Give the backbone structure.
Amino acid sequence: MDDHWLPALTALEREIVRYDDPPPTGASGLAILPGHRPVLLSAPHAVRHRRDGLWKREDEYTAAIVHWLHERLGVHALYPTHRIDPDPHDDDDQGAYKQAVRDLVQAHDIRLVLDVHGARGDRDFALALGSIYGETCAPYETAIIRAFEMEGFHTNSRASSLDRIAINPSRYAGGARRPTVTRFVWQQLGVPAMQIEINAWARVVARLPESYEALRGVAPDFRGDPARIRRVLSGLMRIVEAVTISPDIESEAG
Ligand SMILES: [Zn+2]
Protein backbone atom coordinates (compact mmCIF):
# COMPACT_ATOMS: atom_id res chain seq x y z
CA MET A 1 0.00 0.00 0.00
CA ASP A 2 1.49 3.35 -0.97
CA ASP A 3 1.95 6.26 1.41
CA HIS A 4 -0.95 8.35 0.22
CA TRP A 5 -3.85 6.23 1.39
CA LEU A 6 -4.57 8.12 4.64
CA PRO A 7 -4.99 11.60 3.16
CA ALA A 8 -6.66 9.98 0.15
CA LEU A 9 -9.35 8.49 2.39
CA THR A 10 -9.96 11.82 4.09
CA ALA A 11 -10.13 13.65 0.76
CA LEU A 12 -12.60 11.06 -0.52
CA GLU A 13 -14.80 11.28 2.56
CA ARG A 14 -14.92 15.07 2.15
CA GLU A 15 -15.71 14.88 -1.52
CA ILE A 16 -18.16 12.02 -1.99
CA VAL A 17 -20.70 12.33 0.84
CA ARG A 18 -22.82 15.10 2.34
CA TYR A 19 -23.72 13.63 5.71
CA ASP A 20 -26.80 15.70 6.46
CA ASP A 21 -27.88 17.30 3.17
CA PRO A 22 -30.91 16.03 1.27
CA PRO A 23 -30.24 14.78 -2.27
CA PRO A 24 -30.42 17.52 -4.92
CA THR A 25 -33.71 17.63 -6.83
CA GLY A 26 -33.79 14.87 -9.39
CA ALA A 27 -30.76 13.03 -7.98
CA SER A 28 -31.04 9.50 -6.60
CA GLY A 29 -28.75 10.26 -3.69
CA LEU A 30 -26.95 6.98 -4.34
CA ALA A 31 -23.47 6.29 -5.70
CA ILE A 32 -23.73 3.12 -7.77
CA LEU A 33 -20.26 2.12 -8.95
CA PRO A 34 -20.07 -1.07 -11.03
CA GLY A 35 -16.73 -2.87 -10.98
CA HIS A 36 -15.14 -5.98 -12.45
CA ARG A 37 -14.52 -8.10 -9.34
CA PRO A 38 -17.09 -10.57 -7.96
CA VAL A 39 -17.54 -8.60 -4.72
CA LEU A 40 -19.97 -5.80 -3.87
CA LEU A 41 -19.05 -3.50 -0.98
CA SER A 42 -22.06 -1.66 0.42
CA ALA A 43 -22.07 1.17 2.97
CA PRO A 44 -25.74 2.00 3.62
CA HIS A 45 -25.08 4.12 6.72
CA ALA A 46 -22.39 6.33 5.16
CA VAL A 47 -24.68 9.34 5.84
CA ARG A 48 -27.48 10.25 8.27
CA HIS A 49 -30.26 7.71 7.97
CA ARG A 50 -33.81 7.92 9.26
CA ARG A 51 -34.94 5.04 11.45
CA ASP A 52 -38.06 4.95 13.61
CA GLY A 53 -38.58 8.65 12.87
CA LEU A 54 -35.11 9.68 14.11
CA TRP A 55 -32.03 10.70 12.15
CA LYS A 56 -29.16 8.42 13.16
CA ARG A 57 -25.50 9.38 12.96
CA GLU A 58 -23.47 8.46 9.89
CA ASP A 59 -20.98 5.57 9.95
CA GLU A 60 -18.00 7.83 9.20
CA TYR A 61 -15.54 6.81 6.49
CA THR A 62 -17.51 3.78 5.34
CA ALA A 63 -18.18 5.60 2.04
CA ALA A 64 -14.50 6.47 1.67
CA ILE A 65 -13.45 2.88 2.39
CA VAL A 66 -15.77 1.23 -0.15
CA HIS A 67 -15.11 3.93 -2.78
CA TRP A 68 -11.34 3.62 -2.30
CA LEU A 69 -11.51 -0.17 -2.73
CA HIS A 70 -13.64 0.34 -5.85
CA GLU A 71 -10.98 2.60 -7.35
CA ARG A 72 -8.08 0.47 -6.22
CA LEU A 73 -9.35 -3.07 -6.85
CA GLY A 74 -12.40 -2.71 -9.06
CA VAL A 75 -14.97 -4.03 -6.62
CA HIS A 76 -18.58 -2.95 -7.11
CA ALA A 77 -19.49 -0.27 -4.58
CA LEU A 78 -22.72 1.27 -3.37
CA TYR A 79 -23.42 3.98 -0.79
CA PRO A 80 -25.78 6.91 -0.28
CA THR A 81 -24.23 10.27 -1.11
CA HIS A 82 -26.81 12.32 0.84
CA ARG A 83 -28.90 11.66 3.91
CA ILE A 84 -31.20 8.73 3.32
CA ASP A 85 -34.81 8.10 4.28
CA PRO A 86 -35.76 5.40 5.02
CA ASP A 87 -32.73 3.77 6.57
CA PRO A 88 -31.95 0.77 4.32
CA HIS A 89 -32.17 -1.30 7.51
CA ASP A 90 -35.68 -0.05 8.27
CA ASP A 91 -37.36 -0.09 4.85
CA ASP A 92 -39.43 -3.30 4.72
CA ASP A 93 -37.03 -4.26 1.90
CA GLN A 94 -38.78 -1.69 -0.33
CA GLY A 95 -36.27 1.20 -0.36
CA ALA A 96 -34.33 2.46 -3.38
CA TYR A 97 -31.06 1.38 -1.78
CA LYS A 98 -31.99 -2.31 -1.68
CA GLN A 99 -33.34 -2.06 -5.24
CA ALA A 100 -29.91 -0.77 -6.29
CA VAL A 101 -28.34 -3.77 -4.52
CA ARG A 102 -30.71 -6.07 -6.39
CA ASP A 103 -29.92 -4.42 -9.75
CA LEU A 104 -26.16 -4.72 -9.23
CA VAL A 105 -26.35 -8.36 -8.12
CA GLN A 106 -28.60 -9.30 -11.05
CA ALA A 107 -26.47 -7.47 -13.64
CA HIS A 108 -23.03 -8.71 -12.58
CA ASP A 109 -21.16 -11.80 -11.43
CA ILE A 110 -21.26 -10.98 -7.69
CA ARG A 111 -20.42 -13.86 -5.35
CA LEU A 112 -20.14 -11.97 -2.07
CA VAL A 113 -21.69 -8.82 -0.64
CA LEU A 114 -19.94 -7.16 2.29
CA ASP A 115 -22.12 -4.63 4.08
CA VAL A 116 -19.71 -2.24 5.78
CA HIS A 117 -20.70 -0.34 8.94
CA GLY A 118 -19.11 1.65 11.73
CA ALA A 119 -19.23 0.95 15.47
CA ARG A 120 -18.37 3.36 18.26
CA GLY A 121 -14.83 3.55 19.53
CA ASP A 122 -15.71 2.16 22.96
CA ARG A 123 -16.93 -1.23 21.70
CA ASP A 124 -15.00 -4.33 22.76
CA PHE A 125 -13.99 -5.37 19.24
CA ALA A 126 -12.08 -4.03 16.27
CA LEU A 127 -14.34 -5.92 13.87
CA ALA A 128 -17.72 -7.53 14.37
CA LEU A 129 -18.80 -9.99 11.70
CA GLY A 130 -22.53 -10.58 11.36
CA SER A 131 -23.90 -13.53 9.41
CA ILE A 132 -27.11 -14.20 11.36
CA TYR A 133 -25.25 -16.90 13.31
CA GLY A 134 -23.66 -18.51 10.27
CA GLU A 135 -26.69 -18.43 7.96
CA THR A 136 -25.82 -15.79 5.37
CA CYS A 137 -22.18 -16.34 4.50
CA ALA A 138 -21.32 -20.02 4.94
CA PRO A 139 -19.12 -20.38 1.81
CA TYR A 140 -16.84 -17.48 2.75
CA GLU A 141 -17.04 -17.04 6.53
CA THR A 142 -13.82 -18.95 7.22
CA ALA A 143 -11.93 -17.10 4.47
CA ILE A 144 -13.11 -13.75 5.78
CA ILE A 145 -12.00 -14.53 9.34
CA ARG A 146 -8.69 -15.86 8.03
CA ALA A 147 -8.07 -12.69 6.00
CA PHE A 148 -8.37 -10.54 9.12
CA GLU A 149 -6.33 -13.01 11.20
CA MET A 150 -3.53 -12.60 8.69
CA GLU A 151 -3.62 -8.90 9.55
CA GLY A 152 -3.15 -9.59 13.25
CA PHE A 153 -6.75 -9.60 14.47
CA HIS A 154 -7.92 -12.49 16.68
CA THR A 155 -11.25 -14.18 17.27
CA ASN A 156 -10.31 -15.38 20.71
CA SER A 157 -8.09 -12.72 22.12
CA ARG A 158 -7.47 -11.76 25.70
CA ALA A 159 -5.34 -8.93 24.38
CA SER A 160 -6.60 -5.50 23.34
CA SER A 161 -10.24 -5.26 22.26
CA LEU A 162 -8.89 -3.29 19.30
CA ASP A 163 -7.32 -6.49 17.97
CA ARG A 164 -10.43 -8.59 18.48
CA ILE A 165 -12.82 -10.02 15.88
CA ALA A 166 -16.25 -10.65 17.39
CA ILE A 167 -18.37 -13.16 15.50
CA ASN A 168 -22.12 -12.56 15.60
CA PRO A 169 -22.20 -10.61 18.88
CA SER A 170 -25.83 -10.12 19.89
CA ARG A 171 -26.17 -6.48 18.80
CA TYR A 172 -24.31 -7.03 15.54
CA ALA A 173 -25.45 -10.40 14.22
CA GLY A 174 -26.16 -9.02 10.76
CA GLY A 175 -29.94 -9.01 10.74
CA ALA A 176 -31.41 -11.40 13.26
CA ARG A 177 -33.93 -8.66 14.06
CA ARG A 178 -33.74 -5.98 11.37
CA PRO A 179 -34.34 -6.14 7.59
CA THR A 180 -30.65 -5.64 6.89
CA VAL A 181 -28.87 -5.55 3.55
CA THR A 182 -27.15 -8.79 4.60
CA ARG A 183 -30.40 -10.61 5.25
CA PHE A 184 -31.95 -9.23 2.03
CA VAL A 185 -29.02 -10.31 -0.14
CA TRP A 186 -28.91 -13.83 1.22
CA GLN A 187 -32.59 -14.59 1.65
CA GLN A 188 -33.96 -12.77 -1.42
CA LEU A 189 -31.06 -12.80 -3.87
CA GLY A 190 -29.38 -16.06 -2.83
CA VAL A 191 -25.90 -14.53 -2.68
CA PRO A 192 -23.63 -14.90 0.38
CA ALA A 193 -23.44 -11.71 2.44
CA MET A 194 -21.87 -10.52 5.66
CA GLN A 195 -22.21 -7.39 7.78
CA ILE A 196 -18.90 -5.99 8.95
CA GLU A 197 -18.83 -3.46 11.78
CA ILE A 198 -15.55 -1.58 12.07
CA ASN A 199 -14.60 0.17 15.30
CA ALA A 200 -14.01 3.93 14.94
CA TRP A 201 -10.37 3.48 15.96
CA ALA A 202 -9.84 1.17 12.98
CA ARG A 203 -11.84 3.29 10.50
CA VAL A 204 -12.01 7.07 11.11
CA VAL A 205 -8.88 8.69 9.68
CA ALA A 206 -9.78 12.23 10.77
CA ARG A 207 -13.25 13.24 11.94
CA LEU A 208 -14.84 15.83 9.66
CA PRO A 209 -16.27 19.03 11.22
CA GLU A 210 -19.73 18.34 9.75
CA SER A 211 -19.99 14.88 11.35
CA TYR A 212 -22.75 14.22 13.87
CA GLU A 213 -20.20 13.85 16.67
CA ALA A 214 -18.12 16.92 15.85
CA LEU A 215 -21.21 19.14 15.57
CA ARG A 216 -22.09 18.10 19.13
CA GLY A 217 -18.58 18.64 20.43
CA VAL A 218 -17.94 14.90 20.89
CA ALA A 219 -14.26 14.28 20.19
CA PRO A 220 -14.23 16.70 17.24
CA ASP A 221 -10.51 16.10 16.69
CA PHE A 222 -10.84 12.30 16.77
CA ARG A 223 -8.14 10.46 14.83
CA GLY A 224 -8.18 6.66 14.56
CA ASP A 225 -5.10 4.45 14.63
CA PRO A 226 -3.47 4.51 11.17
CA ALA A 227 -1.92 1.07 11.65
CA ARG A 228 -5.27 -0.54 12.41
CA ILE A 229 -7.03 1.29 9.60
CA ARG A 230 -4.36 -0.03 7.26
CA ARG A 231 -4.80 -3.59 8.61
CA VAL A 232 -8.56 -3.42 8.07
CA LEU A 233 -8.08 -2.21 4.49
CA SER A 234 -5.52 -4.95 3.84
CA GLY A 235 -7.90 -7.55 5.28
CA LEU A 236 -10.69 -6.35 2.98
CA MET A 237 -8.30 -6.54 0.02
CA ARG A 238 -7.36 -10.11 0.97
CA ILE A 239 -11.05 -11.04 1.02
CA VAL A 240 -11.58 -9.59 -2.47
CA GLU A 241 -8.59 -11.57 -3.77
CA ALA A 242 -9.80 -14.78 -2.13
CA VAL A 243 -13.29 -14.48 -3.62
CA THR A 244 -11.90 -13.53 -7.04
CA ILE A 245 -9.90 -16.76 -7.29
CA SER A 246 -12.63 -18.94 -5.74
CA PRO A 247 -14.82 -21.02 -8.04
CA ASP A 248 -18.27 -19.66 -8.75
CA ILE A 249 -20.47 -21.23 -6.11
CA GLU A 250 -23.70 -19.60 -7.16
CA SER A 251 -25.34 -22.92 -7.88
CA GLU A 252 -24.87 -23.96 -4.28
CA ALA A 253 -26.31 -20.80 -2.76
CA GLY A 254 -29.72 -20.79 -1.13
ZN1 LIG B 1 -24.46 1.08 10.39
